[in-house]
Design brief:
The protein has 10 helices and 14 strands. By secondary structure, it is of the alpha/beta class. It has one domain: Glycosidases (TIM Barrel, Alpha-Beta Barrel), CATH 3.20.20.80. α2 packs parallel to α3 and α4 packs parallel to α5. The two termini are about 30 Å apart.
């Protein structure tokens, strides 16, 4: 008989034998999860937290209680559209216990059709499917404008469309820029224009701003942050096998200057998205984010032939995955989310 993720099994993960308990959720209900390391009371669903806000460097709920969100990022909408559906989101909430997902709207990709600039309607259709499913499943959703280059006017138009549609939903988090390769001055100017367009429509929902050098120079942004707007955060990205203590030092410097951080993309392998998982550095990053109350989203719900894609291959279904449908990284992430994200 084919063993499913609802049975207990043992995985050899390279750093030793880990008991990966996968029993189905039982009748016990948890309204709160007391984070022993940080003292944060974690209410994990949107209906519990409501509209999020920023206090100091902390993400807080409507009661002013600090919140840590943990979840997964989808692959690009135009490359893995098969996962942009209600079934995938529902399974991630039910089985993986995510409380946030990230919908990746690829802005431009010359090698693949249906990027946003090539086919806006196709991109919006994929995005809406995921956002609507997130709302239905009571989880937060990051709307990621996935570009390394500045497309200011197109971004303003995109976020106006999205904000008009979803401004009344507390689930929404806007991510303005994926991994900029521009100076902070250029990114700041772009971000201020896009923020103004969003805030003309949506006054409350969280906005996450990109930082230079693929979202690593958060310390640079901290010296000259954007002012005049509430509920904005700054994105930090890391891949644990490539980005180690020096990047954590930059993050610490930014936090010390009062810059709120959200890790909107991370993983345990190299920055290429491939190579072996660095278990030790991944664990150090998890502890760092937990200790500082930093929310995180890891890559990716995709079936690419690389170690950061969590789904085994194109023969795997879009939901109801068993142990044979997930790669080692997918199994690790699922275990981490189930351990930390307790839900009603």
């Amino acid at each position: 008989m084919k063993k499913t993720l609802h049975n207990s099994f043992i995985l050899l993960l390279g750093w030793g034998l880990t008991c990966f308990s996968c029993s189905s959720p039982n009748g016990n209900k948890h309204s709160e999860n007391e984070n022993a390391a940080s003292g944060i009371v974690e209410l994990t669903s949107v209906s519990q937290n409501g509209f999020l806000a920023i206090q100091g460097t902390s993400l807080v709920n409507e009661k002013g209680q600090p919140v840590i969100l943990r979840g997964v990022s989808f692959g690009s909408h135009n490359t893995w559209p098969r996962f942009y559906n209600d079934n995938t989101v529902t399974w991630l909430k039910k089985d993986w216990k995510v409380n946030v997902i990230r919908a990746v709207v690829r802005v431009l990709n010359d090698r693949k059709a249906n990027s946003y600039l090539q086919n806006p309607q196709a991109a919006l259709t994929s995005l809406y499917a995921v956002v609507d499913a997130a709302i239905k499943n009571d989880v937060y959703v990051i709307i990621d404008w996935h570009s390394q280059d500045i497309h200011r006017n197109e971004a303003i138009d995109f976020f106006r469309i999205v904000a008009e549609k979803y401004k009344d939903y507390p689930n929404i988090i806007y991510e303005l820029f994926n991994e900029p390769v521009h100076t902070w001055g250029e990114v700041k100017k772009y971000s201020e224009a896009v923020i103004a367009a969003i805030r003309a429509i949506d006054k409350r929902n969280i906005i996450v701003i990109g930082t230079p050098t693929w979202n690593q120079d958060v310390d640079v942004a901290a010296v000259n942050p954007i002012t005049g707007y509430a509920n904005i955060m700054y994105s930090l990205h890391f891949y644990a096998a490539s980005h180690k203590q020096s990047l954590r030092n930059k993050a610490t410097a930014a936090l010390q200057k009062g810059l709120p951080l959200f890790v909107t993309e991370c993983a345990g392998m190299e920055s290429s998205g491939n190579g072996p998982i660095n278990f030790r550095e991944w664990q150090i990053w998890l502890e760092f984010m937990n200790d500082h109350g930093i929310s995180w989203v890891t890559c990716s719900i995709a079936d690419k032939n690389e170690s950061s894609s969590m789904i085994k291959d194109a023969s795997s279904p879009v939901s109801d995955w068993d142990i044979y449908d997930l790669k080692e990284w997918g199994l690790m992430v699922r275990e981490e989310l189930r351990k930390n994200n307790q839900q009603l």
